[in-house]
Amino acid sequence: MKCKDLMHVGLQWVAGDASVRDTARLMRDRAMGFLLVAGAAPGQLKGVVTDRDLAIRACTDDKRPGDIKVGDIASTEVIVCDEDDDLGEAEKTMREEQKARLVVVNADGKAVGVLSLTDILLHDHPRRAAKTARGILAREAEGPHTPIDQIKLTPSTPDDEESVSHQESTLTGRRVDGPVKMFP
Questions:
Q1: pLDDT at 118
Q2: 3-state secondary structure string across 61-82
Q3: CATH number for region 3-140
Q4: Sheet of 80-82: strands edge to edge?
Q5: CA atoms of 10 and 130, how far apart (whole Å)
Q6: Tens-binned pLDDT, residue by residue, of the chain (184 aa)
Q7: How far apart are CA 7 and CA 115, in angstroms?
Q8: Residue 76, C-beta contacts closer than 8 angstroms, at least 6 positions apart
Q9: Could you tell me which residues come within 8 angstroms of residue 92 by beta carbon, excluding any fewer than 6 positions away?
Q10: Most buried one in 8, 28, 40, 144, CB count within 10 A?
Q11: 48 has which bridge partners?
Q12: 3-state secondary structure string across 127-155
């Protein structure tokens, strides 16, 4: 199977000079988490932006989302595959780069589609798809994790503390029997 057999061809673009606010609204309104960022020339790929990019890169600065250009926070190192590449090669690239999406390009280097991990999980051989998913998600599992007994949960304000201390809690899901550790 070739990349062109699974890729999404309805590419969604945003101008590089669009604001982060407008980009977030576009993602919300179209229920998308990934957009291609257009460069100065028509069809030129400047980068890609994800909903995670918006959250991590744009929200960490003391700037208003309307004042930040999406081109300034977009990932400019775009991982691509050729539309005629074998799907196995694309999956290998995804695992090595730990990327859940690849931009698919044609022989002229123009973006013609996007191949996602979801596409692979839905349409590829189950074992190979699972191997690809594990490879991509490994970065999440390998990250630094604070031991749960060292996490400090505190209310935002003294008023919040007062209102929280008088609220009744509701548990859903499985029942917990035995000791429960309370955090300060």
A1: 93
A2: CCCCHHHCEHHHHCECCCCEEE
A3: 3.10.580.10
A4: 80-82, 101-105, 111-116
A5: 26
A6: 999 999 999 999 999 999 999 999 999 999 999 999 998 877 789 999 999 899 888 877 778 888 999 999 999 999 999 999 999 999 999 999 999 999 999 999 999 999 999 999 999 998 999 999 999 988 766 666 566 566 565 555 555 545 544 444 444 444 445 454 444 4
A7: 5
A8: 46, 47
A9: none
A10: 8
A11: 36, 75
A12: HHHHHHHHHHHHHHHHCCCCCHHHCCCCC
Query: Which residues partner with 113 through β-bridges?
Result: 104
Query: What confidence score (pLDDT) does residue 153 get?
Result: 57
Side chain identity, residue 182 = M
Starting at the edge strand that comes first in sequence, how are the strands of the sheet with 13-15 ordered? 13-15, 34-38, 45-50
pLDDT of residue 147: 61
The pLDDT of residue 152 = 61
Give the tokens for residue 115.
């191949």
